[in-house]
Amino acid sequence: MDDFEELLDFGTFDSIIVLDTCGTSSTPPRFPSSSVERMGPQDAHLGWGTTVASAAGGAYRLCWCTPVGLETNSTGHLNGTGQQPACQVPEDHSVDIGTLHFVGASPLFQDRTCISGQTCVLQGIRGQHLSVEDRLLLLDTC
Question: Using an 8 Å Cβ cutoff, are 59 and 80 in contact?
Fold first, then answer.
């Protein structure tokens, strides 16, 4: 992200969110709702803290928002809107700055059937950037 930071000159109230399409409310399923990460002049990064993102493998858009050019006060809130901060909803993030390649199974629900007492081979698992070194663990609940 250092290249983006240099190119876009991230400000204190700028943010990035992962969307299917920038400038819309098309938040991908199973991405944490807290995927908007505040930027600082020296710490441009995207993350979800300890929350696990379990979205399907695929290519998603990195969408940027800046309140620059919007009338905001010193705390980053839009003037005339009380406590409504700028860059808080997906639709505010209209600038497409790149692609997030999320490695994993896709689609997420790929049903297979095994019969008790017989050898079971799970083949044909599809996804984004899967390799022969990936592992699968069978659980009642993930």
Answer: no
Question: Residue 142's Cα: distance from chain center in Å?
Answer: 20
* Average pLDDT rounded to a whole number, residues 103-110: 86
Q: Is 99 helix (H, G, I), strand (E, B) or coil?
A: strand
Q: Round to whole Å and give the CA distance between 14 and 86.
A: 9
Q: What one-letter code names the amino acid at 11?
A: G
Q: Rounded to two decimals, what is the model's pTM?
A: 0.69
Rg (CA), the chain: 20
Quick one: pLDDT at residue 8? Answer: 46
Residues 142, 140: Cα–Cα separation, whole Å: 7
Residue 16 CB partners (closer than 8 Å, separation 6+):
36, 37, 39, 46, 62, 63, 64, 65, 93, 97
Separation of alpha carbons 96 and 101, rounded Å = 14
- Helix (H) / strand (E) containing 10: none
Cβ atoms of residues 95 and 65 within 8 Å: yes
Q: Is the distance from CB of 125 to CB of 109 less than 8 angstroms?
A: no
